[in-house]
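Hi both,

Apologies for the delay on this - the queue was longer than expected. I finally got the manganese (II) ion-bound model through. Below you'll find the protein sequence and the ligand SMILES exactly as submitted, and right after that the structure tokens for the full complex including the ligand.
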Amino acid sequence: MERMDTVVAVAIGILAAITVASVVALVLVCRNCYCQQMHLITLLHKNSSGLVPHCIAILKTCHYLTNRLVAMAMGCSQQIHMQEAMTDIIAMAKQITPRVDEVVWSMYPPLDPRLLEARCTALVISVNHLVYVVKNAYHLAGTLDWTDQSLADVEDHLKGREGVELGPKALRDAGLVSSLQNLGHEVHDYGDLEFEEIKDDPKRHNINNMKSVSEAGKKICSAVKKVVDAGKICITLGGDHSLTTGGIYGHTLSQPNIVILWVDAHADINPPAASTTGNMHGMPLSFLVEEVQPYMSKIKEFDWVKPCISAKDIAYIGLRDVDPAERWLIEKLGIPCFSMYEIDLYGISTVLKMALTAIDPEGRRPIHFSFDIDSMDPSIAGSTGTPAMGGLSYREGMFIAETVANTGRLSALDVVEVNPRLGNETEQKHTVDVALDIIQAVFGKNRRGMLPPGFFLPRMDP
Ligand SMILES: [Mn+2]
């Protein structure tokens, strides 16, 4: 267990929402002090099928807002100032019903994404107007503060935000900071990283939202570097796995000798040109691994990141959804790789021994532990963007985390791809709980049980 004088600092960086891309990052730093921040990136697929869940969410929220506002207005319609406003309120509410119908009809195939988006926007404008009218009628804006959150949610859905940028908040709300403090760490939460919105950001070099992703990466890079420079352990909460382009590069600027334990269902090493989706979260390692560079085209926006990791310094654990280009690179470059097949073959304990020995036979180098929640089986962590069946069990995940803790060499941890908007309520809760348990285990909580410093059982007088 960590000693009491060990200090953990936490920083959470969040969130750029660019019409199509959102960037979120959070950083936790530990050991002897404070820390700084990080982030992560979410890319949206604004295809037709991706729009529907957002539209349904918008419909639900608009329905809720309208019902509640009208009920409130009716409830005090006897008051003088409300009587005048009632005519307006009823007229506004009447406009909303046909707009809801239009949105619903637009969701039927053949679906026209532009029409659907336009109709959702029209609906949201109407509901906004209703909120405005009711607020004015009440002369008491304070009592209607609850509408702000609902309208903000609607706005998020309208922009097509995926929800993975909400991961850090979900983990904080679940008690991340206090749970680490309870383990005897000093934790500093640096809040969310902010990312500028870049309006004109088309797909280029086969990377969606290329400028946004690059700019976010720079910020994450310097945030992580500062935390590690200060001698702390840096936790970066995502957001998606693209945050590691900046995060790992920043880590190496401070600690050039790191090794990487990459626990994930995916290899995330597609060179941009080989990517089938253009989503940066499937590419971060391609920018970082020296031996991959001959297969990368030159992208000047990513000049700031230099290849800083050797293929032999990375160990994959938990892979089960690997693209051909990725498999080819793993074999060609000899990247130590322990997929679910090897875990079934040898067992998690042997796999971990082999993985850690492969990247650092002497056991001396600082570890960057990059944990993608989709490494876990979807039955226990389903609220994630790209789930893959047949993943790590809870026990295997905990064993990995406890083993990393036992090395005493953790230098940075990424926790990515927790998406509190996906799945049902139970799945959302389980996913956040699993992530929280993994983080706690990485920071010293052990299933054997914990003995608080100084604890003893007093002898009883006979
Ligand atoms: Mn990943």
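Main takeaway for now: DSSP finds 14 helices and eleven strands in the chain.

I'll put the files on the shared drive as well.

H.
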